[in-house]
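Appendix B. Extra example for self-study. Work through it before the problem class; the solution is given directly after the inputs so you can check yourself.
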Amino acid sequence: MSPPSAHRRRGMVRPYAAAGGNLTPTRSTLDPATLLIADPKVPLTGLGAYPHRLMALCLPGVLSVAEAAVRLELPVAVTMPIASRLVDSGHLVARAPFVPAADRHDRAFLERILDGLRKL
Amino acid sequence: MPAGAEAVKIVVVGPFAVGKTTLVGAVSDIAPLRTEERMTSAGAMVDVLERLGEKDTTTVAMDFGRTALAEDIVLYIFGAPGQPRFAHMVRTLLEGALGGIVMLDERRVHESFDAIDLMETAGLPYTVAVNHFPDTPAHREAELRDALSLTPTTPLVRVDARERTSATRALIALVTHLLSRTPEPTP
Ligand SMILES: Nc1nc2c(ncn2[C@@H]2O[C@H](COP(=O)(O)OP(=O)(O)OP(=O)(O)O)[C@@H](O)[C@H]2O)c(=O)[nH]1
Ligand SMILES: [Mg+2]
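Solution. Structure tokens for the complete assembly:
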């Protein structure tokens, strides 16, 4: 099978139902391990029920998309477009999981990961 | 978790009942969490719940755990089925991963071939974790490597997926492998 095309990545196939019936494509691609950080300065007025609940979950701290899905009792594939829209609107900042590229910083970071694993 | 935290993702793939959820749970600081994902018959994950009939979709469970590796590094470890019909969904999950763990039960070595193909196709570095079950024929490592056509540098470790220290050895082997591929900084 051919790899998924860019707009199909992250399972974002036609966001619709839980996203509030909004079919506008989103610019943000997310991963289940993407961390969501809420901006407390952006008002929540006008948000639908699920986006509002997602903001309430993220405001106290940092939460991954997958954990947010569990808390919302929604599939990850449904949670991702909800979170993407909140990123587009500035309510959330998304930080993608670390993927190594062959450079100096990455080596140091991989060594920190290894140290952490050895201490488990 | 501080606002500056970074996430890393590792994906565990293997055949039915090989011990994926057990390994995720052993490594995780929290009890494994689970989401139920919908897939089309073509294996694509869907986020449209209301416009697809039940007949067009199947459900697949995605397990994951979370482990703090430092104050500002959090590991998410996902368990995913290795069967070809889930390949589309797993490929989506493999994007953005640091690497993969392929689990293998020595009583049914060939059942892990599909998981290895997934890693190879994705070009993702991986480690094979052979977990020990009772009354298992113990293959020699060379036999297993040959059966799996592993490249000599791909780590193969024996684990007990139920034990945290043992399960973590598979992750340590993976990250050590990643480091060995990453060039030393030039002075
Ligand atoms: N002896 C032994 N048993 C194990 C080990 N790992 C898992 N098991 C047992 O094997 C069974 C299946 O383990 P799971 O972790 O549910 O396997 P899984 O791969 O998540 O299974 P599915 O999600 O159904 O495909 C459970 O009864 C585990 O207790 C191991 O390393 N040694
Ligand atoms: Mg399982």
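Self-check: The first helix of chain B runs from residue 20 to 27. If your reasoning did not lead you there, revisit section 3.
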